[in-house]
Design a protein that fits this description.
By secondary structure, this protein is mostly helical. The chain has helices spanning about 5-40, 55-65. It has one domain (about 5-65).
Length: about 70
C-alpha cells in the first residue's frame, strides 16, 4: 500500500504555522506598545484610579492594527 500524501492539507499546515509566527510577533509588538503606553501614563503627575478614555482608545487603536 503506497502512502498517499495530501498536499493540500500539508500546505495548509505550513501556512497555519506561518500565521502562528506572525501572531507571535504581533503579540510581541503589541506588548511593547502597551508597555510604552503605561510608561507614558506613569509620567503624568497624578495617577487616577482608571485609565482615561484617550488612553483606552490608544490601546484599542494599536490592537486594531493586527
Amino acid at each position: 500500500m503506497s502512502q498517499k500524501v495530501n498536499w493540500r492539507s500539508r500546505i495548509k499546515l505550513k501556512n497555519s504555522y506561518k500565521m502562528l509566527g506572525n501572531i507571535k510577533t504581533a503579540v510581541k509588538i503589541f506588548e511593547k506598545n502597551i508597555l510604552e503606553i503605561i510608561a507614558d501614563y506613569q509620567k503624568l503627575s497624578y495617577q487616577p484610579a482608571f485609565i482615561p478614555v484617550h488612553m483606552n482608545n490608544k490601546i484599542k487603536n494599536k490592537a486594531k492594527r493586527f
